[in-house]
Amino acid sequence: MTNLRFILGDQLSRSVSSLRDVDPSKDTILMVEVAEEATYVRHHKAKLVFIFSAMRHFAEELRREGLRVDYVRLDDPQNTGSFASELKRAIPRSRAGRVVITEPGEWRVLQGIRDWENQTGTPVEIREDDRFLSSLREFNVWAEGRKQYRMEFFYRNLRRKTGWLMNGDQPEGGRWNYDIENRKPLPDDCQPPQRKGFPPDKITREVMELVKERFAHHFGEINNFRWAVDRDSAQKALKVFIDVCLPTFGQYQDAMKAGEDFLYHSALSPYLNCGLLLPREVCESALQAFHEGEAPLAAVEGFIRQILGWREYIRGIYWLHMPEYPKSNYFNARRCLPGFYWTGDTEMRCMRETIRSTKRHAYTHHIQLLMITGNFALLAGIDPAQVEEWYLIVYADAFEWVELPNTHGMALHADGGIIGSKPYAASGAYINRMSDYCSGCAYAPTTKLGPKACPYNYLYWNFLMENQKQLEHNPRMRMSYRNLARMSTDRRKKIRAEANTFLGAL
Ligand code: DLZ
Ligand code: SF4
What confidence score (pLDDT) does residue 1 get? Predict the structure, then answer.
C-alpha cells in the first residue's frame, strides 16, 4: 500500500515513528506550512522563522536521501491554510491508501487528527511518539493512585531504568540531587562564553522575508536570528554546550546577569522540542563528558534532571490532565496581562532585561521565566490563560505540551499543586541575590514601602495576604505566614494600599 506520511513542524527527526518503515519507491512524505498554525496564537516572528526554516531544511535532507517529499509552502497560492484541508488536497496527489502520522505534541492538534479519517475517507494510523525517554503509558502507571506527582520520584525511577549516573542501585556520588550546589550567583569577574550561533543561510533568509511580509504585526525581532535550523548545526550547538558550557553550567544555572542572555545554559530546548536533537543523544553526550572527567557530577546531574526528569515528567502531566488542565485557576487570578510584557517598557530592570532577551532571541533561560516574568504574573494575579498564551507566543521552544504545565503549574500554581508543592513566589531579595539587575534599577530591592520600594516586595506580601486561605495550611508556606503574622496591622494596611495602587496602574 502507498502511504502518505505526514510530518508536523515539531517532528523533524529522521527517526520519528511515522518514517520508521518508509518505502522510498512508493511513499510520499507530506509537510505543510499552514496559516492556521502560524496564527492560532501570534507566534514570535523568530519562532516562525525557526520552525518554517527547520521544516524546509528537513524536507531537503529527506529529498537528498531519495525520499519523495510533498512540501506545501505558506506562500503557495493554492495553500488552503489548515492541516485537514491540506491533507485532503494531498491525498489524491500521492494516490495514498493510508495516512501515517506520529501523535502530535498538542491536544488541540490531536483532536483534529482524530477527525481526519472522517473528513478524508482515508484510513489514518496515529503512531506513538517514541522520541521521548519514557512512554506516556509508563508515566500513567507511575501516576496512578498518587495524590501528588513529585518529579523527583519519577526522575529516580528513570535514573534506575536508564542506569544513568547510577552505581548499581545507588545514585552516583551517593545523592540523587545536587541542586544545592547549583544555586550560585555569577561572580563579577566571570565572563560567560559568547554564543555566535548560526548566520542565516539562503533558505532562512527567504523565510525571514516571508515572515516580515506576512507577520509584520507579530511580536519580536528577527534581525539577530542565529538559531540552528538543521540537524548538523544543532549537533554543533550541542558540542559547544558540552565542551564549553557544561562544566560551569551547574553552579550558575540559577544566576542572572544583565546583557548575558545565555550564560552557561544549553539553549538546546528549541532543537529538542522540534526534533532536530533527541533527548537520548543530548543526555548521552553529557554523560560521556562526566565519565571522561570533563564535567563535574553536580553539573551533569543538574542537566540530566532537566531532560530525563523534568521534560519527561511535564509531558506526562500534560497528557494525563488534558483537556481539563488549563481550566483551573487556584488563586482566582483575573487581572489582564500588563502591556510591558510586550514592550518591555517598565522601570523594573529585571523585567526589562527579560523582555529584551525574549524579543531579541525568542528565548530566556528558566530562572528568568520562572522568577521574573512568572513570579511577577503570580504575585500580580494575572489571568493564567493570558500568561499561558504569552509564553506560547514568545518562546521558540514553546509547544503546548511543555509550555502549559510549566506556566499553569510551575510558574502560576494555578493547578493548585498538581506539579509544585508550593508556589514559586519570591520577593526582590531573591532576584537581588541571584542577579546584578537591582544595581541599575529605579527601585531598591531592600526597600519595602514607598516610591523606591521594589514592587516584588509589597506584591509578595500582598499575595500572601490575598491568598491566605489557599496557602496558610501548606506546610512549606508555614515560615512565610509566621513572618506575616509578626507584621503590624498598620504595616499590612500600607502594603495592601501600595500594592493596590501599583496594580491599579498596570
Ligand atoms: C508552531 C507551528 C507553526 C507556527 N507552524 C506550523 C506549520 O506551518 N506546520 C506544521 O506542521 N506545524 C507548525 N507548527 C507546529 C504546530 O503548531 C503544533 O505545535 C505541532 O504540530 C504539535 O505537535
Ligand atoms: Fe527587579 Fe526589584 Fe531588583 Fe528592580 S529592585 S531589578 S524591580 S527585583
Answer: 81
Ligand 1 pocket at CB < 6 A = 8-10, 32-34, 37-38, 43, 48, 51, 104-106, 109, 399
- Closest ligand to 53 CA? 1
Ligand closest to Cα of 502 equals 2
Task: Return the bridge partners of 126, or none.
Answer: 101
Residue with CA closest to ligand 2 atom 6: 438
Q: Which of 71, 79, 66, 39 has its CA nearest to residue 54?
A: 71
Q: Any idea which fold 136-200+230-321 has?
A: 1.25.40
Q: What is the pLDDT of residue 354?
A: 98
Q: Percent of the chain beyond pLDDT 70?
A: 100
Question: So what's the pLDDT on residue 182?
Answer: 82
Contact (Cβ atoms closer than 8 angstroms) between residue 227 and residue 197: yes
Indicate yes or no: pTM above 0.90.
yes
Say which CATH class 340-504 falls into: mainly alpha
Q: Which superfamily is assigned to 3-127 in CATH?
A: HUPs (3.40.50.620)
At residue 471, does pLDDT exceed 90? yes
**End-to-end Cα separation, the chain, in angstroms:** 60
